[in-house]
Each structure stands twice: as structure tokens, then as C-alpha cells.
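Risk register update: the risk of archive-format incompatibility is retired. Evidence:
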Amino acid sequence: NQGRMAQPLPPQMGGGSAHGPPGSVVESNILQVYAAYETGLAHGTSVRIKVSTATTAREVVDLVIKQLNMAVILKGKDRPIYENEKLNNFCLVAVIGSRERCLRDDFKPLNLQNPWKKGRLFVRMKHDLLAAIEHLSKHTTLI
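Archived output:
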């Protein structure tokens, strides 16, 4: 994992960002990733993470889930907590409108090309095929 350096930033409750289009690369290497699975937190919860060009989709997924697990614990909730052995049940997806692209685990999200790099990134369970699109359609509020 040397040189991959994915670093968490504080979770964002609610949606959007004042720094750029929601879910896009807000700075050259900061991704905002939304949760499209049951987190026990507010709908629209997202995590901003600093990534490098070597960071993979699997690393982003693992970091997002671990950060949201911590947020659940810090809020005094007892669940849901997703253990390390469950992390492979999740994937990173890019969504634009009603189109979704599931990213391979070894894909580097900073390499997304248009139009996908203009979309939102979500973590969802692999078997929950429409979760990210449904989440996006419900989630229209920007702060």
C-alpha cells in the first residue's frame, strides 16, 4: 500500500458541497463519496477523502465504510457496523442521472473520464443494483 495514500476527511451529513459539483473531484485529489447503503446515519451522508492517482476503488470503498462505521460509533449508535470481512460485499459506483457504472476494485477513481467524472460517486452493496440511482433520485437537497 505504499504510495496509495487514501486519507479520510470528516464525514459530511446531508448533501452537496460548497466547493464544487456534488460528488465530483472538489480539489485535484479530494473525492466526495456518498453512502447508498444502510448506514444508520442521515440520508445523504457522504465522506470526503484525499486520494492519490494510485488509490484504487477498493481502497476508497474500504475507507468510506470504515469512516462511516466510526461515525456510527461516535454518535452512540450500536449498528449498523460493517466488519472487515463484509467489505468485499460493497463496490464503488459512478452515477449520472439514471446511468450507473460499477468500478472494478483495481480501477483508480481519479482516472474517470467524461462524462463519468462529472457524476457522483457512491458506495453500495454489490447485490443492490439500483441503490445508488434510487439514492440519487431521493437526494436532491444541497447545503
